[in-house]
Amino acid sequence: xxxxxxxxxxxxxxxxxxxxxxxxxxxxxxxxxxxxxxxxxxxxxxxxxxxxxxxxxxxxxxxxxxxxxxxxxxxxxxxxxxxxxxxxxxxxxxxxxxxxxxxxxxxxxxxxxxxxxxxxxxxxxxxxxxxxxxxxxxxxxx
Length: 142
Prior knowledge:
142 residues, two-stranded antiparallel ribbon
């Protein structure tokens, strides 16, 4: 993905995001906005959907662990995900020295969609904040 994001903008735009039906493709800086009334987000992304066996099995392993931790009947979560697919998404937050519009940020407060979100970080880069639902406090994830 690093090589893809280093391509010229015109080349990357040939792989434009298809929309929620297919859920595949590239969104360039300011193309996507998590809040429709705000300026576009200062990030790039590439989505693809994978119904492949190995990704589905990894998802099931997480769901089995959640069943165990929450003392649920074995298979109860997995049964609800049998026909699901795995949406993979790579986000890139490039250095930005252009204009920042009023209210524009990298990505606003939001709730991820789907059942499981796995985040990989590189170089111990911070930035993600997680809300404690009991206290309302925002905690910087490092």
